[in-house]
Write a structure and sequence with these properties.
Layout (H helix, E strand, L loop, with lengths): L33 E2 L7 E5 L4 E7 L2 E6 L11 E3 L2 E4 L4 E4 L5 E3 L11 E4 L2 E4 L1
Antiparallel strand pairs: 1-10, 2-3, 3-4, 5-6, 6-7, 7-8, 9-10
Length: 124
Amino acid sequence: MAVGCGGIGNGEGSSPDSATDTAAPDTSAGRELASTGGIPVGGGVVLKEEKVVVTQPEQGDFKAFSAICTHQHRLLANVSDGTVNRACHGSRLRITDGSVDRGPATGPLPPEQITVEGKSIRPA
């Protein structure tokens, strides 16, 4: 039994270990995912409801990936120090390309297509 693996995050939506976390990302075309001002340079934001992480590795360079870890297919918790993190097992995936920085994640995060229109980040 894993201890300390539930309840990570800001309290919005489901916990990272809930059964609904493995559903496909909700990136309905036209819907704003985030504002460019809400994505820190060198960091990113996990959008729990959409199951997408949006990052900004360098000023003006926005990327998006599935926020479902490739290890146990659960929602990632947060972004810090240049990686997207899964608190329960310690997986860390790079904000630049979704590749594994530290396992047990088994592969890179699948990319999500986005467009930046003014200050709005939307699914492509």
